[in-house]
Amino acid sequence: MWIDTHCHLDASEFDADRAAVIERARAAGVGLMVVPAVIPASFDAARQAALQCGGGYALGIHPLFVHQVGDDALALLRAALQQHRDDPRLVAVGEIGLDYLVPHLQDPISRARQESLYTGQLALAAEFDLPVIVHVRRSADALLKHLRRQQALGRPVSGGIAHAFNGSAQQAQTFLDMGFKLGFGGAMTFERASRIRQLATELPAEAIVLETDAPDIPPQWLYLTAQDRSRGLVSRNEPAQLPRIAQSLAALRGWSLEQTRERTTANALDVLPKLRPMAA
Questions:
Q1: Is the whole model's pTM more than 0.85, yes or no?
Q2: How do residues 184-194 score in pLDDT, each as one tens digit?
Q3: Rounded to the nearest 10 degrees, how much is the dihedral formed by the CA atoms of 26, 28, 31, 36?
Q4: Domains (ranges, CATH) in the chain?
C-alpha cells in the first residue's frame, strides 16, 4: 500500500469527479490519503473528503490564506480540534507554516500575521498532542525557530511532516532531529530540481515520505509550459500519480519499487501514528 501524505482532495478541482479520482488512486495501490485543510471554511470539506476516501485529514490555516481568515481563526481551529479530538481520522494539525516566497505576503504586516497564526497553531498542536504538517517555502529557519521555542516552553510539538521540502541538508537534519519526516513529490521528478533530488538521494531512509499535493505540484510528465496554459490547457495532479512519482525516488536511491513502498509507508505511519489502524 502507498500513502499519499498530502493531497487536497477537497479542492474544487475535484468537485466534478472526486469519486473517480479516489477510484483511480485505489486502483494504483494508493491505500491511504491525508487531506489537509487550509482555512476554517474548508475544515468540514477536508473531513468529508477523508471520509469518502477512507483516509485521514488535518485541520489548519495555510499561510497563503492569512488575509482571508478573521481574527477568530485560531479560536475556530481550537473549537474544531476539540470537537473532533476523538475522531480517529484526525491525524494532524495542518497545513500550517510560513511562506517567504510569494511577493504579496512579504510586507511586515503579512509576515507578522503569518508568524502569529503559525505559532498559535503550534501551541494548539502541542495542546491536542497532534503532529503538524508544515508548509515550507524559503522559511525553514523561521519554522524551526518557533518549533524550538515550543520545546523551550515545555510544550513540544510531537513531530510532523515538512511538506514539499526544498531546504538545505543542515535544515533537513534539524527537522529530523525534531521528529519530522520530509515530504517529496512531483518536484523530485524534474531533472533540473538538483537540490531536491540530491536530498532525496542522500537523506536517511527513515526521513522520507511521499506526497502529491494534488491538484498542485504536477510531476514532470504532467507539467504544462506557460504557452500550454495560455492555450487553455490545464494540468491537474492526482493521488494516482504517487506510484509513478515513487519510481523517481526508487531510481535515485537504488531501491526497488517494493522497497520504496515499504520504507515510505512505514515512515508515514511512524510520523502520523493515527493512520496505523486505517492501514491495518
A1: yes
A2: 999 999 999 99
A3: -90
A4: 2-279 (3.20.20.140)
